Amino acid sequence: MRIELGVALTHLTSRRRQSLVSLTGVVLGVAFFLAVSSLMRGSEKDFIARLIDNSPHITVSDEYRVPDVQPAELRWPGAALALSHVKPQNETRGIRGYRDKLAFVESLPGVRAAPVLLGSAVLTFAGRLQAVTLSGIVPAKMKGVSTIEQKMTAGSLDALAANPNGIIIGSTLAERFNLRLGSTLSVVAPSGASRAMKVVGIFHTGNASYDQEQTFTLLKRAQSLLDRPNRANRFVIQLSDPYAAREMARRIEGTIGYKSVSWVEASEDILSVLLVRNIIMYSVVSAILVVASFGIYNTISTIVLEKTRDIAILKSMGFHARDVRNIFLLEGLIVGLLGSALGVAVGVALMRALAEVTVKPPGVTEVVHLPIWWGGEQYLLASAFALGSCLAAAYLPARKAGRVHPVDILRGAT
Amino acid sequence: MSAVLVAEHLVRRLAGEVPVTLIDDVSLAIEHGEFVCVMGPSGSGKSSLLYLLGLLDAPSAGRVLLDGEDTSRYGEDELANRRLEKLGFVFQFHFLLAEFTVLDNVLLPMRRLGRRDEAAQQARGRELLERLGVGDQAGKRPSQLSGGQRQRVAIARALANDPLVVLADEPTGNLDSAAAANVREILRSLTHEFGKTVVAVTHDGAFAAAADRRIGLVDGRISDGWPPS
Fold it and tell me: What is the CATH number of domain B3-222?
């Protein structure tokens, strides 16, 4: 292999300009591959991180994924049945025996859970009305599963814990109704029950709709207001390993029976969009490398064409067809290896430059840096693709070189 | 003396709409240490015969025995190995690799064979160049040498792996008379000094006169009537 390497290097160095153009193509291909990949994957990871941080990893609701089977269907499976005059059982909605089920969930490793009773209510203040989502929570538990505490601009969850008639509202609602800490408003339940409550906290998430329509009160207060004593209809769950959510949700649902939706399942549409985006991105950046490989094909084809006589001489000396093939494959490999190494260096420089770029997304007050992903696998992927392209580009001319019949060339030359 | 290279009823035909017979039932035996010239008019099949004897081309019929081995049963790789180990070629045009130095050109067959370490290869390469009078050109590129010098380097390369037979195709055809005489003497000396067998194809009467034996070839057949007296 040493001699083939020597011949390959000699060919490349004797055609410096052509080799340099081919090399530049690979370098730019790898560099742009890395720049685009790091930016796209960075934004994806940033998005998923926000998704994981800001929403429950698993939500257990008071629903069943598969409705209960009617006794008649159990008695006559597969039969055509028509049931009439069946009066559905009228029961208080919620997770039955939620305390036991919550205790089971909390006993699972790496799991933090909080019970929530979610319902609708209307807030009235100074003659103005606002339909809101009322979440009855246990502040101490909620702190462990939600970032709402960090989003508080006034008051705290502890203040809610200390005040049975306290309510936490969003900043948009506070501005709209001109409410501040200590303001008293009226909360009316769908049943007509009404209670005066005091604002003990104001949060700001940046999501205008959430900041206007979401409110928090104590679980017990929500239970009495919504007339659902001892009930919770949601478990909000956070995991130490967010990526284990799908498996953990399956386990929880398998045990307690209620529908458990992981953040992965809940965001499937978004994640599939990200997947499609990644496929498009990798197709585009790979196309750059494919185009670069045409440069290598051109260079090596030209060398094969120019060196046909030398190939004939090498074969007449006793070089095998595979020796000759190896020479030209090595040329592709050398360009690929050098191109990958230099491309990674240029790519990292580009990534560093991109990481310094700041943007101000519309509706956001803060200036943010472009999210760049520095993961190692993209370097491997870019280098492997570049090497593969270079070898594929070298293969056809190498095969042609290996098939040169020395007599045809020698006869033509003499 | 024993035959080192034997051709038995060699035939070489080129297929096509009008098949062409290049070599037609040629049989010959070349002894160890012999200097044989193959002569004939243009298009008589001299080079074709040399390519068959040199295992570069496969006969349509017949066989070539090299050092007692029937080469007709060998595949392409084995034929390449026999060329590497037992044969050396010198062509009308020197066919040195332009990007390599003179010494590297001579080292190529040795490096491919890989039987000597690098130091031994270098020593042998330099020794061959010295013996052929181009030792001082070792570091130069072929383009910096005269035609005669290039042909001497080509002979050194042919001798690199200590072959049994050196096959030369019009080795003086592209040289002036002084250089041609020099190359002729070198090839002749190969049989005496190096103990090689030399088979050369030539038009050159003076070159042929230096050979131990001359074989005439007309229309692909051995002819006793060539060259005409």
Answer: 3.40.50.300
